[in-house]
């Protein structure tokens, strides 16, 4: 089978399509034949990081993560064999391949009438977007800021904030196409986060402050977002695409503000019942059309270098998916 890996850290050109044997699912695992593979920006950071001291460093050879939608072909020894033949979505740490092994515990059933690319947001992107709003305790009428709002997670968070009663939704994005998408998805105010004064533009749109900020950029963007929070405002941090896992100034939290870190694995461990209910809710919203998962690019599995160039250049509006 085809299998994408890299044997050196560096630019997109280190990615290679290789031939590998079809893996066997072990205990607690299933083997999935993908229809699509949803890509993740974090793999850009992992692929290019050669410094062993960095949190982004991974040993070689490197594999690529993804959100796989497809059919279960085989099950591990202690997994219900009735799962074979079912359509599912799942997160995988070695996902860029013709066959993918993944844990059976958090498989998401995918209805036949749900587009595979849309379903690819269920196991991770949608779960993160909805989970962040939950732990951020969004309340009706509040003002919500979503940085990197046109990304795979951000564009879902913008819509889910509205669906959960936000009074005002402010989103940031770095291109005209991305800002147009956010306006189409219902953001009240859309701001160019490459502008030096983007935070002042947010402040003008929300003079009383932001009640909830969702940030996946980190660094200076997170610092500015904290300063935009109203008293008792919350910032939920779910990524650091800028590459800077910055510390949070104590003076920021002294102003009656709080910072919460979100990771989907921790959320599932802390409240598995709610995490599973979230997946059901997301599936229903996608099927009804109330939540729109935007696919900005489709790239063949045979073209991993092109896929990573698009990710690295932040050229995709919404999600980039691979098609085997």
TrEMBL record:
Listed PANTHER family: QUINONE OXIDOREDUCTASE-LIKE PROTEIN 2 (PTHR43677:SF4), SHORT-CHAIN DEHYDROGENASE/REDUCTASE (PTHR43677)
Residue span, Enoyl reductase (ER) domain: 10-322
Gene3D superfamilies linked: Medium-chain alcohol dehydrogenases, catalytic domain (3.90.180.10), NAD(P)-binding Rossmann-like Domain (3.40.50.720)
Any GO MF annotation of the entry: oxidoreductase activity
SMART domains: PKS_ER
Protein name, per record: Oxidoreductase
Annotated InterPro entries: ADH-like_C, ADH-like_N, ER, GroES-like_sf, NAD(P)-bd_dom_sf, Zn-ADH-like_protein
Top-level taxon in the UniProt lineage: Bacteria
SUPFAM superfamilies reported in the protein's UniProt record: GroES-like, NAD(P)-binding Rossmann-fold domains
């Amino acid at each position: 089978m085809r299998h994408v890996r890299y044997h050196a850290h560096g630019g997109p050109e280190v990615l290679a399509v290789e031939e590998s044997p079809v893996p066997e699912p072990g205990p607690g695992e299933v083997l999935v034949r993908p229809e699509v593979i949803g890509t993740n920006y974090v793999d850009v950071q992992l692929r290019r990081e050669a410094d062993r001291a960095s949190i982004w460093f991974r040993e070689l050879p490197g594999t690529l993560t993804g959100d796989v939608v497809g059919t279960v072909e085989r099950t591990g020894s202690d997994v219900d064999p009735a799962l074979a033949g079912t359509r599912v979505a799942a997160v995988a740490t070695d996902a860029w391949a013709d066959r993918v092994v993944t844990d059976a515990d958090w498989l998401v059933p995918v209805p036949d009438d749900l587009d595979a690319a849309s379903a690819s947001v269920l196991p991770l992107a949608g779960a993160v977007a909805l989970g962040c709003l939950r732990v951020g305790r969004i309340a009706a009428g509040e003002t919500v800021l979503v940085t990197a709002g046109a990304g795979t997670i951000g564009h879902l968070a913008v819509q889910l904030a509205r669906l959960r009663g936000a009074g005002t939704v402010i989103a940031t994005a770095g291109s005209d196409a991305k800002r147009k998408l956010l306006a189409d998805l219902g953001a009240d105010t859309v701001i160019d986060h490459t502008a030096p004064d983007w935070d002042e533009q947010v402040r003008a749109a929300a003079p009383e402050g932001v009640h909830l900020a969702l940030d996946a950029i980190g660094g200076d963007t997170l610092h500015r977002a904290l300063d935009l929070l109203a008293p008792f405002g919350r910032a939920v941090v779910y990524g650091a695409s800028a590459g800077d896992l910055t510390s949070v100034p104590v003076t920021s939290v002294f102003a009656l503000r709080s910072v919460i870190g979100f990771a989907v694995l921790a959320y599932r461990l802390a409240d598995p019942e709610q995490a599973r209910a979230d997946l059901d809710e997301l599936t229903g919203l996608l099927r009804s059309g109330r939540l729109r998962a935007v696919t900005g690019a489709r790239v063949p599995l045979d073209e991993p270098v092109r896929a990573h160039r698009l990710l690295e250049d932040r050229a995709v509006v919404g999600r980039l998916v691979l098609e085997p």
